[in-house]
Automatic annotation (TrEMBL):
GO biological process: cell adhesion mediated by integrin; cell migration; cell-matrix adhesion; heterophilic cell-cell adhesion via plasma membrane cell adhesion molecules; integrin-mediated signaling pathway
Keywords: Cell adhesion, Cell membrane, Disulfide bond, EGF-like domain, Glycoprotein, Integrin, Membrane, Repeat, Signal, Transmembrane, Transmembrane helix
Transmembrane stretches, start-end: 722-744
Protein name, as recorded: Integrin beta
Species: Tetranychus urticae
Length: 779
């Protein structure tokens, strides 16, 4: 049986393409002779009668096209370094279904570096220019320690040579200030080269100039320095660094309108034969978003070296450019070498991935820093996609989750090429994405046109007629200029399909689908007469309790409740022992007792000091323990017939918090019996009735298998045992007394002998001695 909720997740979509875009679990049935939901959960289409060969259910597909192994450190010296793998992947994506791509990176030593120095040469920057010329050799030496494959370039900028940014008075235009030359937007002075002497010379020779307003044309200069790849000399396989030094704010898109420049920046290279920016007075400044895009597309990392007073301003700019960083420039640029060295080391020791994906795709990065030779299995990957503290030959594994979140309206935009690369590197992973926004049956050349199934008034696509203008209906059989009769099949103006998506419109009348487990009815097939909840395995409890009408239970006079689960009678709340409703300790609601505080139980018969129903089950327990069987007795027939008993003999009576403990002594055998009981709904016993309502109760009983019976006293055995015990105790006492007296006498005798041995007697004649000895022996 298919639930209504399962179908509603997918059904209602009018075409195969819209169906597969609605959910990753939805499929479309393109069979010709099919009269049910065409869009449904993939697991339900077979149940609805659609064969596998007619089911449209596209899946993601990934194919690695190029996967060269990563190079070790020395490979970069011969310009063959491979730092990223794989290099090319073809990916077919279904909407809302993501695919995970593994990407590996290993840093190589002596990887080529192109550093282009872009400097503001307004009058206030004269001391910075002088210091840069002095530090040219040191900059080259320090970068040479990092990589031997290093090239340096130089360019300068001021602002647009037009009012209101520059004074266009002929004299001021030629010499805007003392010791100044004419203003210009951007000038490319030196292409990327290893000639440090030339760099120093050109920096010194760069003339100082000025303009009227405070902001400079910084973004104009950055745009030209990035997009004029050939003139600047950016190498394809190199790390690209653009150093921007200024002490002023910047103009951005929209400011050019002050000078009447309404043409947007075209992101093209406009350097004349003298390497000056020639279109500065013809088009607006670039937007920040344009700078962000071209820096990523050309893999140029911008380092803004800014004085302290402007750090806050440029800090906001850097946050909007993925491939950019910010450093504070000292008052005379003395720390410029340290800035460049530090930013480069930070850039190479930390890897962060960027991409050029559109808004239709969502890329989520997870990374884990790995040491050389360590497997990537079972790693705890985290966001964001940054790995810090890398060294040469360190290998990092990234997992990129790619998800198609929406389909472009234009078919031409459904193929997209994504490039994922570390900031500042040209090398990256290319992913060719093919977006599945239509089913194969919609774009196949076999689509049948004007066939008889659509009455020659429509195109038969994916098993369904798409009617031409002036015709409508499931088979385009209905005619009408105003479609009024067809609109009569729509219950609401917001409906996307006629007949609530549960039937077909036959010239203004709905013919409802016949689906197992559902009974669609109503003018618009809006009702499901099998969509009500079950009670005791039947809809609305069966016909004696209620009937399902349009998804709601209509109860008989004897029952009430949303699913007719509540009897109106209080009979089920009457205690079979006391014959009272809930024992006067509660109210009967829906055939069950709602007890007052401190009372509980089926009939509010339980409390800390109550007997409860213990007497009711005594005979049953005694019978089960004595005979091992359980039979209905006269005492049980007094209870409600709407519950059954489950009784179990146990060796150890472990109580549940819901159990009532009982103990009694049998009148005929003087044996003590112990048992527990509790009441439970069948919904707690039968998994098959889960989520369905039942009014039947079960009595769960546990009885202690071993009874404690009183045994008669044997007086003779008791007397003999008593006398024997006394005799044994007397003998033991006498023996102990004799041992103690013997030990005491022995001890006294030893003392006497010792005393006699120590007496010093005077000499006497032998007769006296003999007489004394005789006396001693006699004693």
């Amino acid at each position: 049986m298919i639930s209504n909720g399962e179908l509603d997740k997918c059904n209602g979509e009018p075409s195969c393409g819209q169906c597969i875009r609605s959910s990753t679990d939805c499929g479309w049935c393109s069979a010709e002779n099919y009269d049910s939901f065409r869009c449904a959960l993939i697991g339900n289409l077979n149940k609805l009668g659609c064969r596998n060969e007619s089911i449209e259910f596209p899946k993601n597909k990934m194919e690695i096209k190029q996967n060269r192994e990563l190079s070790w450190a020395k490979a970069a010296s011969i310009n063959e370094a491979v730092q990223i793998k794989p290099q090319l992947i073809k990916l077919t994506l279904r909407p809302k279904k993501y695919e995970t791509v593994k990407m590996f990176y290993r840093q190589a030593v002596d990887y080529p570096v192109d550093l282009y120095y872009l400097m503001d040469v307004s009058k206030t920057m004269s001391k910075h220019k002088q210091k840069l010329a002095e530090l040219g050799n040191e900059l080259a030496n320090q970068m040479g320690l990092i990589t031997k494959n290093f090239r340096l370039g130089f360019g300068s900028f001021i602002d647009k040579n037009i009012q209101p940014f520059t004074d266009t008075n002929p004299q001021k235009l030629k010499k805007p200030c003392d010791e100044c030359s004419s203003s210009y937007g951007f000038k490319h002075s030196m292409s990327l080269d290893t000639n440090v002497t030339k760099f120093i010379k050109l920096v010194k020779e760069s003339p100082i100039s000025g303009n009227i307003d405070a902001p400079e044309g910084t973004l104009d200069a950055i745009m030209q320095a990035i997009v004029c790849r050939e003139r600047i000399g950016w190498r394809k396989d190199a790390r690209h660094l653009l150093i921007v030094t200024t002490d002023a704010d910047y103009h951005y898109a929209g400011d050019g309108r002050l000078a009447g420049l309404i043409k947007p920046n075209d992101e093209e290279c406009h350097l004349d034969s003298q390497n000056f920016y020639s279109a500065g007075n013809e088009q607006d400044y670039p937007s920040i978003n344009q700078i962000n895009m071209v820096s990523q597309e050309n893999n140029v990392h911008i380092i803004f070296s800014i004085i302290r007073e402007k750090i806050a301003k440029y800090g906001k700019l850097v946050k909007k450019i993925k491939s950019a960083s910010l450093a504070e420039l000292s008052s005379n640029s003395a720390n410029i070498v340290d800035i460049i060295k530090g930013e480069y080391q930070k850039l190479t020791s930390n890897i962060q991935l960027v991409d050029n994906s559109s808004d239709h795709l969502r890329l989520t990065y997870y990374s884990s820093c790995l040491k050389k030779g360590i497997s990537d299995d079972n790693l705890n990957l985290v966001q964001p996609p940054i790995c810090e503290g890398l060294q040469v030959d360190s290998q990092v594994m990234f997992k990129v989750k790619i998800e198609l979140i929406s389909c472009p309206n234009r078919v031409s935009e459904r193929k997209e090429v994504i490039k994922i690369n570390p900031i500042g590197l040209e090398e990256g992973l290319i992913i060719e994405v093919n977006m599945i926004c239509e089913c194969d049956c919609e774009k196949t050349k076999e689509t049948k046109k004007h066939i008889s199934k659509c009455n020659s008034k429509g195109d038969y696509i994916c098993g369904k007629c798409n009617c031409h203008q002036g015709s409508f209906g499931s088979d385009c059989a209905c005619d009408g200029d105003d479609r009024k009769s067809f609109e009569e099949c729509f219950k609401d103006t917001n409906d996307t399909e006629p007949c609530s998506g549960r039937g077909v419109c036959k010239c203004g009348e709905c013919k409802c689908y016949s689906v197992k487990g559902h009974a669609y009815t109503g003018k618009y097939c809006q009702c499901d007469d099998l969509a009500c909840e079950y009670v005791d395995g039947q809809i609305c409890g069966g016909i004696t309790r209620g009937e399902c009408k349009c998804g709601k239970c209509e109860c008989t006079d004897r029952y009430t409740g949303s699913v007719c689960e509540c009897p109106k009678s209080s009979q089920k709340c009457i205690d079979p022992v006391t014959k009272t409703i809930c024992n006067g300790r509660g109210t009967c609601n829906c055939g069950k007792c709602d007890c007052q505080q401190s009372y509980f139980g089926l009939y509010c018969d339980e409390c800390p000091t109550c007997l409860g129903q213990c007497p009711l089950y005594q005979d049953l327990i005694k019978q089960q323990i004595n005979n091992g069987t359980l039979e209905m007795t006269s005492s049980l027939t007094l209870t409600s017939t709407n519950y059954s008993i489950i009784s179990t003999l146990v060796n150890d009576l472990k109580e549940d918090s819901r159990d009532k403990r009982c103990q009694f002594v049998g009148k005929d055998d003087d044996c003590a019996y112990m048992f527990t009981y509790r009441y439970e709904d069948e919904t707690l016993i039968k998994p098959s009735l889960k989520n369905k309502i039942s009014e039947n109760q079960r009595v769960i009983m546990k009885a202690l298998k071993i009874r404690k019976c009183t045994q008669p006293i044997d007086l003779k055995a008791y007397a003999a045992e008593y006398i024997g015990t006394i005799v044994v105790i007397g003998l033991i006492t006498l023996l102990i007394w004799r041992i103690i007296t013997f030990m005491l006498d022995r001890h006294e005798y030893q003392k006497f002998l010792k005393a006699c041995a120590n007496i010093d007697f005077p000499e006497v004649n032998s007769s006296v001695t003999l007489h004394f000895t005789f006396l001693i022996l006699t004693f």
